[in-house]
Amino acid sequence: MELWGVGTMTTEPIELTDTLRLDDPYTVPTRYWHELPDGRIQCDVCPRACKLREGQRGLCFVRGRVEDQVVLASYGRSSGFCVDPVEKKPLNHFLPGTPVLSFGTAGCNLACRFCQNWDISKSREIDTLSSSASPETLAAAASQLGCSSVAFTYNDPVIFMEYAMDVADACRAVGVKAIAVSAGYINSEPRAEFYAHMDAANIDLKAFTDHFYEKITFAKLPMVLDTLEYLRGTDVWFEVTTLLIPGHNDSPDEIREECDWFGEHLGPDVPLHFSAFHPDFKMLDVPHTPPETLRMARRIALERGLRYVYTGNVHDPAGQTTSCPGCGRGVVERDWYVIRRYELSDSGTCVHCGHQLPGVYEGPAGTWGPRRMPVQLSGGRRAPRYRA
Predict the structure, then answer these.
(1) Which parts of the chain sit beneath pLDDT 70?
(2) Which residues have CB under 8 Å from 256's CB, separation 6+?
(3) Is 6 a domain residue?
(4) What is the DSSP string of 241-263?
(5) Whether residues 251 and 312 fall in one domain
(6) Same structural domain, 49 and 159
(7) With contact defined as beta carbons under 8 Å apart, do 59 and 11 qualify?
(8) Residue 221: in which H helix or E strand, if any?
(9) Total domain count for the chain?
């Protein structure tokens, strides 16, 4: 498998031996790009602004230039499908306990040195996308499997937004919701179109310093904060995750700054998850996050007035319990992805005091638990509804 970033780090457009072709059944035109005076074409989906000559792909790998336009070369293709608990996204206030049909493609528009899904996000071989399914096939499969939602995850869906939006629309037609798990690195116009098709999101706020974003992810923090503030004004339910990496983004001062911004700009009711890092990709020399670091971050967030703060990637029932602000009781007790106790009504009110908890609740909690179930889908690629 050819992997971007294993040798040297680059954020320039790339040229591969495989050829972009408009007659490829998984390649579709896109709309967010414009011509430059020097003959190159600039992709306008994300702040990366890749400037492409004929045959070049952007940093994300799945978008490139062919016949003087930018195309998506992975429509209908996937690196695999799996049914997961919705809490794994992580989303604790969105249809708790329910299964979600999850999938991703290849590539990413960030270059995180610590990527936990690097075999997918940094792949530069289209053969990584060994599975395929039309939006209608995915929607039907999610419904038949009893999934309440589908999740675009494992790599960032903004880079395959045309496919993701069509899948979301097909799912809505059969009563299945759509979740985007994203780094939030997307420009304003495509962002508005993309999230108009989504029901929920988890946004990775990878750190709260410009230095970390520029040196570790090769991106810009303000653009991610813009996405978070944008989502605050929409009907999309969203939660936020920060992966705490020892020595890089886990200082108490940085966590305080993040939580203060969070409370001021997003409010106290948007859930915030602090997750544990494990050594991976280009940060193999960094140790695992100590559980106490997660507990410290959670304490700081609660002290700063945030109401729904969780620890992740560890067994920590206390740090994964939802407490009711109305009466102070623990109303949803979790241990990793297992709900041990659930004391909310079908509409999400506390059974003890009637306080309405924020989130999306439709009936009793699900019972999917921690199971992870890979599934095989086949259904080809119908002509996309999305039109450039």
Answers:
(1) 1-18, 116-130, 280-282, 378-388
(2) 300, 304
(3) no
(4) EEEE-TTTS--HHHHHHHHHHHH
(5) yes
(6) no
(7) yes
(8) helix 221-232
(9) 2
Residue matched to tokens 């995850």: 153
Phi, psi of 342 (to 5 degrees): -140, 115
The pLDDT value recorded for residue 6 is 32
- Name the one residue in this structure whose structure tokens are 């108009």: 196
Whether 372 contacts 16, CB under 8 Å: no
User: Does a structural domain hold residue 196?
Assistant: yes
Distance (Å, whole) CA 121 – CA 60: 8
Beta strands 338-342 and 131-132: pairing type? unpaired
Contact between 200 and 182 (Cβ < 8 Å)? no
CA 223, 229, 232, 235 dihedral sign is negative
Looking at residue 101, which CATH number applies to its domain? 3.20.20.70
User: In this structure, are 241 and 97 located in the same domain?
Assistant: yes
Q: Does residue 22 form part of some domain? A: no
Eight-class DSSP state of 37: T
Are 66 and 195 in the same domain?
Answer: no
Whose tokens are 């929607």? That residue is 139
β-bridge partners, 150: 101, 178
Positions of E strands within the chain: 28-29, 33-35, 41-43, 51-52, 63-65, 70-72, 77-78, 80-85, 99-104, 131-132, 149-152, 177-182, 200-204, 237-244, 272-276, 309-312, 322-323, 330-335, 338-342, 373-375
pLDDT at 3: 33
**Structural domain contains residue 4:** no
What residues make up the domain containing 118? 77-374
Q: Which residue has the tokens 């507990």?
A: 295
DSSP state of 24: S
